[in-house]
Amino acid sequence: MKISTKGRYALRMLLDLAMHRDDGFIALKDIAERQNISKKYLEQIVPLLNRSGLLRTNRGFQGGYMLSKPASECTVGEILRLTEGSLAPITCLEQEVNECPRQSSCITLPMWEGLYKQITDYLDNITLQKMIDDFTSANGGDYMI
Fold first, then answer.
1. Looking at the predicted structure, is the pLDDT value of residue 113 above 80?
2. Is the N or C terminus of the chain more exposed, i.e. has fewer CB atoms within 10 Å?
3. Could you tell me if 112 and 2 are in contact, meaning their C-beta atoms sit under 8 angstroms apart?
């Protein structure tokens, strides 16, 4: 599994919003500048995050974006599924029901299922807030995403 630029940038954008939550709605240009990401690229990511309900949007002079829920409720797994699709290491695990004709005789399937479980358990238990807290405690408050 390889996480795309879209997934990495979405995570950085949402972390930026979480860290600046007290500032109210944040303009995309400010996020782009702080994160050194093209504003145009962020504009492509916003619709994915908006449709999922992760973002609140405000238009106009004081417009911008903010998280729609606390950073402690936003998991990395949720964010990466939005941007990457499935986190399954093989295609036969991408659907809820494995319809692979070889599943009953596949000697490798249990290993792939175990890997998938490890990936999802790990990423679903890391929140934006945990990432911020861990980094802050390890670096004395200085951060760069």
1. yes
2. N
3. no
Report the sign of the C-alpha dihedral through residues 45, 47, 49, 54, in that order: positive
Report the phi/psi class of residue 56: left, alpha or beta, with left for phi > 0 and alpha for psi in -120 to 50.
beta
Indicate the pLDDT class of residue 68, thresholds 50, 70 and 90: very high
Amino acid occupying residue 70: P
Q: Of all helices (H) and strands (E), which one includes residue 64?
A: strand 64-67
Tell me the pLDDT tens digit for each residue of 20-58: 999 999 999 999 999 999 999 999 999 999 999 999 998
Other C-beta atoms within 10 Å of 110: how many? 9
Other beta carbons within 10 Å of 17: 25
Which of the four pLDDT bands, split at 50, 70 and 90, describes residue 143?
low
CB 81 within 8 A of CB 87: yes
Per DSSP, the three-state class of 62 is coil
Return phi, psi of residue 104, to 5°: -75, -20
Residue 29, CA distances (Å) to 39, 87, 105 in order: 6, 30, 53
Mean pLDDT of the chain: 92
